[in-house]
Amino acid sequence: MELCGYILVLWLLVSVVGHGEAASKYTQALTKSLVYFEAQRSGKLPEDQRVRWRGDSALRDGSDAGVNLVGGYYDSGDNVKFGFPMAFTITTLSWGVVEFRNQLAAAGELINALTAISWGTNYFLHAHTAADVLYVEVGDGNSDHACWQRPEDMTTPRTSYKVDASHPGADVAGETAAALAAASIAFRPSDPAYANDLLYHAEQLFDFAKRHPGLYQNSVPVAGQFYSSSGFDDELVWAAAWLHRATGNQTYLDFLAKSSNSGGVRSMFSWDDKFAGAQVLVAKLILEKKNGSNGALSQYKDAADQFLCSLLQKGHNNVKLSPGGLLWFQPWNNLQYTTAALLLLSAHSNHLAAAKATLQCPFGVLSPPEIIAFVSKQVDYILGANPKNMSYMVGFGPTWPGKVHHRGASVVSIKKDPTPVDCKGGFGRWFNSPNPNPNVIDGAIVGGPDANDGYNDDRSNFQQAEPSTVTTSAIVGVLARLTEGVSK
Fold first, then answer.
1. Which EC class is this protein assigned (predicted)?
2. Which domains does the chain have, with CATH numbers?
């Protein structure tokens, strides 16, 4: 009897220690994920900037149009500000705060998360200069990609591009509306005046998107070469779902119910395809029985359930897994789709738990803890539990990619050597260098391994080695959720 008691106590101690180590791991990764956004900042850096190898950059953005477009984020490893993926970055960051606020606060990262959001939303407020005018890009992708310079030395054109009533972009206007609406919910408890300002702009942008349909790349062709939109129906329902959550206004629910396109069952969730996100938000309303008697909304939940089941390998058309177990979608920056999918699963697990419900799949019934256990294994893969034993989050764990495809990280810091790096000179000395990057871009998540878990750590391998804000933004809330464990 005494031996059994001793074994039980020992087992409990091991369990507690194991849980503590896991929580500590996810907390460390969460901290780094938010530090990463400070490395991506454009504009005048604040005194409390934690990424010290960065300096001020692009301080005259918008001057060609007589508008203040200083600030915002560089999207990936280049120095262009693309409004379309930047808006999705802010929407998913905000969703993480809205869904997992308490966990972020407990981890001591809520203020940092809100700061990361506001660096983007402040920029959008400046970019939305009139009801039907939104600046959607600063810089030029082609000239920028022809140079290898840290952002502090940029000599490439900083042209400003906009959409308006005569040159519409319902997709980018809708996504920016979603970002501002989601952010308004995130800021409501701590700064209601700012939340009101964000919501005012969100509603204007949604109205602009509805009244002036069209793909933004038809108005701004230079943007389409890099972030081409496949449609705007998804952005409209995504924005409507967030505006309903922010306001409770029935008109947004009516818009969702009357939409001729609810997306059907998706194959991914990304900066170009928001249907699955909107479907999960509507599914939450149905679980809470807040959709009234509107049966038209059930198609959103049905589609959401089918996609989530396919992610969890319990559906009819499951998402591919690599041999090592990673959700695998596409060769180019696959991890952006993985982290976005994990955000959906984590959020929906929250919704199911609140409703005391389970996910009914064709080949199994999954409880919220079982969903989070799957999420945890995916995150563990990203953080190093994979066939390469490499963390795909830079700066986390003993081994991570050293030659990240990122101009600022790969060129010596301007604080260490202020000698300007010219457009072509950066290629010879820095891009083609066999050495690891001189600056560690903590928290950046690279594109990740191929379909067979292979990874080539080389700056020229941009499909695998380039990080992006949309990849890390989606995992912030996921990591926050995991800090409280997988059994809840």
1. hydrolase
2. 25-483 (1.50.10.10)
